[in-house]
Amino acid sequence: MKKIESIAEFREAIQSEKPAVALFKADWCKDCVYIEPFMPDVAQAYGDRIRFLVVDRDAFPELGEEYNVLGIPSFIAFAKGNETIRFVSKLRKTREEIEQFLDRVVQVSGELAK
Q1: 90-108 burial by CB neighbour count: b if 16+ within 10 A, else e?
Q2: Is there a domain that residue 25 lies in?
Q3: Domain that holds residue 76
Q4: Does any domain span residue 99?
Q5: Fewer CB atoms near the end CB (10 Å): N or C, the chain?
Q6: Share of the chain above pLDDT 70, in %
């Protein structure tokens, strides 16, 4: 999982041929802390198909505003710079729900590549 250090880096990262999933989070967010232990394993399992980006919403509020990130953690998928799908909910996200979302990202990206 690549921690984004600048807006320019984010913009470049979402342009890749490989689908990119940006995880918008913050250190103070309890639900973000909840997913931290299993996210490295999830990212590794999907790493050959998805590029994972971590965006600190507090460090880059302009990105949160641009992509209308109102709650965190939020997952937004991109294909060649365009948003494809997102996973946002008021409820705590489970590993299974995140993996289902990532399966959808892979499916949608495959359809867009045709």
Answers
A1: eeebeeeebeebbeebeee
A2: yes
A3: 2-103
A4: yes
A5: C
A6: 98
